[in-house]
Design goal:
The chain has 244 residues and is of the alpha/beta class. Helix content is 44%, strand content 18%.
Length: 244
């Protein structure tokens, strides 16, 4: 089973080490993760590389690292450092709520997507409640870059997400912090094959303070098991876009 939306590093509630994150996933029964570092938001590029290397040391090919690109990284030595770090980045991540310049600077956005095109990897896009990251903001991008694969993290709002995945065959959605009712909506509309299981661990600790990360991941798994037949559940749990 694969968790397609995991983090490591510094966050507002403190530091989450590679060992802490990987052990929590294993304890919950997850054996592969797609992971990016929240330390990127502090532009701590060398720390990010150390974190990913440590995860790979522990998990080997079961670790699928995403290169979280920021506007500052694109404008400084950061991007070159990341690309020459000898890490085999398996995807690009962009967070338009944390880094709103992506919404306003289309030239910089194009340059970032050209990096993904050159690397030939999927692009994970955060979707949320702010105008810069509503799912529909990404419709034109998904249409204009048909040769790239996009994942709409969280799928918010769900109606806008449904419109995009209906119109764009190159798009997927992950279930990180997604209400199970939204997952049901996606399945009932025939999109089970486009759903990637994700948890956003260990960000859950900020919102569910009385649950460990392993307990939270297990609760996400149980919620899906409770709502879907085994065939659909297994399909969602095995869907992934990344190199094995």
């Amino acid at each position: 089973m694969i968790d397609n939306h995991v983090h490591v590093g510094w966050y507002t509630d403190g530091y989450h080490s590679p060992k802490e994150v990987w052990q929590a996933e294993l304890e919950a029964g997850i054996n592969e993760i797609v992971v990016s570092s929240t330390s990127t938001c502090a532009e701590l590029y060398k720390l990010v590389v150390r974190e990913i290397r440590e995860l790979i040391r522990m998990g080997g090919s079961r670790i699928h690292p995403l290169l979280w690109i920021t506007p500052r990284m694109m404008k400084t030595w950061g991007l070159s450092y990341m690309l020459h770090s000898k890490i085999r980045w398996q995807g690009i991540k962009m967070h338009w709520q944390a880094h709103r310049e992506w919404y306003y600077n289309r030239k910089l956005l194009h340059n970032a997507l050209e990096v993904a095109r050159w690397m030939d990897v999927p692009v994970l896009l955060h979707t949320g409640i702010y105008k810069e990251c509503h799912a529909r903001v990404f419709l034109d991008i998904c249409l204009d870059y048909q040769d790239l694969t996009f994942v709409l993290a969280h799928g918010r709002p769900i109606d806008e997400t449904m419109e995009i995945i209906s119109r764009c065959s190159n798009t997927y959605v992950d279930t990180a912090f997604m209400p199970v009712e939204d997952v049901i909506t996606l399945v009932h509309n025939g999109f089970a094959q486009r759903i990637l299981f994700g948890t956003d661990a260990p960000i859950n600790l900020l919102f569910y303070k009385n649950m460990t990360t392993a307990e939270y991941i297990k609760s996400c798994l149980l919620a899906l098991q409770d709502k879907f037949p085994v065939s659909i559940y297994n399909k969602i749990m095995s869907n992934q876009l990344y190199i094995r």
